[in-house]
Write a structure and sequence with these properties.
It contains 4 helices and 7 strands. It is an alpha/beta fold and about 150 residues long. The two termini are about 15 Å apart. The structure holds adenosine-5'-triphosphate and magnesium ion (MG).
Length: about 150
């Protein structure tokens, strides 16, 4: 388990952090993104998607809860999930995340809505306000060793 933090001075830095994770993303990976309203979680996922070759505008899944990106729009299937509007953790079982992770990567905003420790193998990220910018903190389990933090950072 590796823990650390990274300053995100502006929106471009949040996007760039997403790009960096996206370049090492594999099917079966879960990336959880905690942080208060407007922290920059969706911005990060837009970076992830850009690394997977997505060229469009990625909307926030706030209302849809799940937006699934599939090849050929992306090089790897990615489910962008936002649990903010979930009222009962039982609803989450109906989203089919467990099945999706067999062949897709998952990026999950508001993972805390699912209760505790649902994705123990996830790269667990939190974005917190820091002056006019943000700070990214992470917990990276063994599955991410050599991938995050980036070897050259
Ligand atoms: N590092 C940063 N410094 C300053 N502003 C940032 C940074 N990263 C993202 N932002 C800005 O924060 C705002 C909210 O971003 P975003 O929609 O990604 O947040 P979110 O965490 O997904 O919000 P929500 O909780 O509503 O889903 C945007 O205007 C974005 O440009
Ligand atoms: Mg969001």
């Amino acid at each position: 388990m590796n823990e650390g933090e990274l300053p995100l001075a502006d929106e471009a830095a949040t996007f760039a952090a997403g790009l960096t994770v996206g370049r090492v993303l594999r099917a079966g990976d879960v990336v959880t993104l905690a942080g208060s309203l407007g922290a920059g979680k969706t911005t990060f996922v837009r970076g992830l998607l850009a690394a997977l070759g997505f060229a469009g505008e990625a909307p926030s899944p706030s209302f849809a809860l799940v937006i699934a990106y599939e090849p050929p729009d992306v090089s790897l299937p990615l489910w962008h999930v936002d649990l903010y509007r979930v009222e009962d953790p039982a609803e989450i079982a109906e989203l089919g995340l467990d099945d999706a992770v067999a062949d897709s990567a998952l990026a999950i905003e508001w993972p805390e809505m699912a209760g505790g420790n649902v994705w123990p193998e996830a790269l667990a990220l939190t974005i917190v306000p820091d002056g006019v910018g943000r700070r990214l903190t992470w917990t990276a389990p063994a599955a991410w060793q050599g991938r995050w933090p980036p070897p050259r950072s």
